[in-house]
Amino acid sequence: MKINWGTAIVIAFACFIAFIMYFVISMSTDKKYDHDLVVEDYYQQELKFQNDIEKEENSKTLKSDISWHKAEEGIVIMFPENLDIKNIEGTVFLYRPPNKHLDFETKISLSDHNLLIPDKRLLDGRWNIKIDWTYNSNPYLFKEEIVY
User: Fold this and answer.
1) CB count, 10 Å around CB of 17?
2) Residue 56 and residue 117 in one domain
3) What is the pLDDT of residues 46-70, one digit of tens each?
4) Residue 83, SS3?
5) How far is 88 from 97, CA to CA, in rounded Å?
6) Are residues 55 and 128 in the same domain?
7) Rounded distance, CA 99 to CA 117, Å?
8) What's the CA gap between 82 and 62, in Å, rounded?
9) What's the number of CA atoms in the CB half-sphere (13 Å) around residue 41?
10) Residues 140 and 69 in one domain
11) Which pLDDT does position 37 carry in this prediction?
């Protein structure tokens, strides 16, 4: 049986359409391709973006910014030594890009200029840390990608 060129073109288009439909259906139904947004309220966070930029600019006016290091007990966050710890308030948010169920937020409570994030709450790998804090009602923000 001989197939003419018109029939061959129709068969080729049908095969191509079937191929594309297979990938569309498999990508939309397979759980391993299910990706979440960074945050659930993405648009509300985007509206606050300018406010975050201003807080980061305030952080640059400090004599020294927040720093951190990895210790056996976990992550130690060090606030500037020249600030009175009684006037520091805020939150520390750790975001784990691959799994939103590991994200957590903790309030800043200092007994000295260091804050410890315990090792039991952290898995090895990449984390985004966001420290939103105030000192004498001046807002500051520290953001960094860390590898634990």
Assistant:
1) 10
2) yes
3) 778 888 888 888 888 888 888 888 8
4) coil
5) 28
6) yes
7) 18
8) 9
9) 5
10) yes
11) 60
Q: Which residue has the higher pLDDT, 79 or 43?
A: 79
Average pLDDT over residues 90-101: 84
Q: What is the DSSP letter of 79?
A: -
**Whether residue 121 is found in the same domain as residue 66:** yes
Q: Is 113 exposed, middle or buried (0-12, 13-18, 19+ CB in 10 A)?
A: middle
Residue linked to tokens 């020249």: 82
Distance of CA 92 to the CA centre of its chain: 12
CB 105 within 8 A of CB 133: no
Which one has a higher pLDDT value, 127 or 99? 127
Give yes or no: residues 126 and 99 share one domain. Answer: yes
Do 20 and 77 sit in the same domain of this protein?
Answer: no
Are residues 96 and 103 in contact, defined by beta-carbon separation less than 8 angstroms? yes
